[in-house]
Design a protein that fits this description.
- The chain is of the alpha+beta class and 216 residues long.
- Helix content is 38%, strand content 8%.
- The protein contains nine helices and five strands; from the N terminus they run αααααααβββαββα.
- The protein has a five-stranded antiparallel sheet.
- A hairpin with a 4-residue loop joins strand 4 and strand 5 (189-192).
- Helix 3 (60-75) crosses helix 9.
- It is globular and about 50 Å long.
- The two termini are 27 Å apart.
């Protein structure tokens, strides 16, 4: 299970951009990037070490590492699991980087987030782990489960009575899902229509840098 104990806003500040890890807060003036747009830590504001070396000194390895870390943090995946995804993508047909992103987008927790059933991927992961989400009519508590075209995602019938999902019924009709998913707000469910393409990944990632990192 990918779990961050400390403040997740520090992760955004470390990468220097919004990773949208806290839902609506990331769109408000309370966003850490808006209030403190520099890296966390003692030398984050100055960007200098005591010896005078620049903290933001760029090398090929640093750029590759940061891109890999950014992808892991956006999707909430630990290093061991992320590396396993890369090995599977490497053995698959097509571009390795694109296949890797398709796998990350096809995770159950990400699809729950994309359908608008959760405000963030972390919240979606929690909903799945607590047994509030069904896949093809069966309760599934594995956020890393990879969905395929034709799979139906829905809120477990017993969970519909919870205050969270009752409040969600008012907001869900106003939300939109990407074209590779279909959303049925009335029944609190959705369906995977197709495999996501590279153009459907709306997060700012350079997958080629990730491929280069693991190909060293």
């Amino acid at each position: 299970m990918a779990r961050t104990i400390g403040p997740v806003c520090k992760l955004c500040r470390r990468e220097g951009e919004k990773l949208f890890l806290k839902g609506a807060r990331c769109l408000s003036p309370k966003c850490a990037i808006e209030r403190r747009g520099y890296a966390p830590g003692q030398h984050g504001k100055t960007g200098q070490f005591k010896r005078g070396r620049s903290r933001s000194r760029s090398t090929d390895y640093l750029l590759q590492l940061r891109e890999k870390q950014k992808a892991r943090r956006i999707y909430g995946v630990l290093e061991r699991q992320f590396r396993r995804y890369f090995r599977i993508a490497l053995r698959s047909k097509g571009l390795t980087g694109v296949t890797l992103l398709q796998m990350l987008e096809s995770r159950l927790d990400n699809v729950v987030y994309r359908l608008g059933l959760a405000a963030s991927r972390a919240q979606a992961r929690q909903l799945v782990q607590h047994g509030h989400i069904d896949v093809n009519g069966l309760r599934l508590d594995a956020p890393s489960h990879l969905l395929k075209p034709g799979d139906v995602i829905s809120v477990h019938p017993a969970s519909l009575k919870l205050p969270y999902f009752k409040a969600l019924t008012q907001d869900l009709p106003e939300r939109s899902a990407p074209h590779w998913l279909s959303l049925d707000p009335a029944h609190m469910s959705g369906r995977v229509l197709a495999q996501p393409g590279r153009e459907d990944v709306d997060v700012k990632l350079n997958e080629q840098l990730i491929v280069e990192y693991y190909s060293r």
